[in-house]
Amino acid sequence: MKVSIFDVAKRSGMSVVTVSRVLNGAPSVREKNRQKVLDAMKELDYRPNAAARSLASGKTGIIGLIVTTLQDSFFDAVVKELNEVLALHGYFLAISISTGIGSDDNHYLIQEDRVDGLILLSPMEEDNYIVELKRRGIPYVLIDNQKPENDTFSVTIDNFKGGYTAASHLLEQGHTSIAHLCGQEMFRSTRERRSGFLQALQEKELIPFEIVHGEFDIGMGYSTCKRWLKQGTLPTAVFAGDDNIALGVINALMEEGIHVPEQVAVVGYDDYYIASQLHPHLTTLRQPADKIALAATNMLLSRISGKMKRGSSTRIDPELIVRESTSTK
C-alpha cells in the first residue's frame, strides 16, 4: 500500500500543512518539528512523487552537486547525507566530479533547466562558479568553501574552534611540547585549524614543537615522524590536520616501539571511519556530515522556493571525540 502525506502526518504527530511545508523547504517550520517529519518519512520509506511535482511546479526535481573528489571520507559522508535528505524532499542528486569550471559534466549541470539548484562541495574555483551561476540565475549553496568573502550562501565548519579545541585538549592533559602537521595552505580549513591551535598555545605562553606543512595523506605524517625519530627529538603530542596524517604518525611511532598515548599523544581531524578502528582508537574532531547536509539542503530549498531573498550562512561546530590516542593525566 502506497504511503501518503497523511500517513507521514499521522506518524510524525504533525499536521498535513506542516508536512507539506517541510517537503517544500519552508523556513518557517521549527527545527524540532522538521526533524520529526523527516524521521517519519524515513521510517515509512515515503518518497514524494517527483514527476507530479515537476509538472506542477515547472521544476526538474534534480539538484546538482559538484565535488572535487569522492576519495575522501568526509566528502563521501556529506554526499551520502545530502542524497538521503534530498530524497526525502523528492529530489534526485546528480553528482559531477569536477576538473574545473569548464569540464563537460559541470557545463551540463549548470545549463539552464538542467537542475533546480546546485551545491558546491569544497570548490577550488568558487569565484568562477559563482559568476556563472549568478549569470544563469541558478540557486546555489557552498559547503566548505575556501574564501570568507563567498560566505553569502554557505555552510562551513568552525575550523578555528576545531584547532583550538584540539590544542586545549592536549594542554589540559599537561602537554607543553605539541607539534601541528598541516595540510596544504590553499585550503581555508588548513589556515583556520592552525590559527585556532596557535591561539590556544599563545594563551599558555607556549610555542609549537614544530609546524609542518604538507599533503593531507598518511605519507606526510609518516615521513615527518620518521624525521623526528632520526633526529632523536619527539614532541609529547601531535595535532594532525586530518586523520590520514594522524595515522601516518601513529604507524611511524609504533614501528619504533613508541607507545601511543603514553609517550606521544595524537589527535586527528574529521573522524573518518578508520579512526574508530585503529589501535589505539584515534581521538579526533568530528565534522558532523548529517548537520552539514541538512543545513545545506534547507538553505538551497529556501532559495529555490524564493523564500530566502537575502544571503545567509551557517557555521557548524566540530565535536571532539576522545578515544585511546590521548590519555587523561
From TrEMBL:
Keyword DNA-binding: yes
Protein name: LacI family DNA-binding transcriptional regulator
Entry keyword set: DNA-binding, Transcription, Transcription regulation
SUPFAM superfamilies hit by this protein: lambda repressor-like DNA-binding domains, Periplasmic binding protein-like I
Protein source organism: Paenibacillus monticola
Transcription regulation listed as a keyword: yes
UniProt GO molecular function: DNA-binding transcription factor activity; transcription cis-regulatory region binding
Domain HTH lacI-type: 3-57
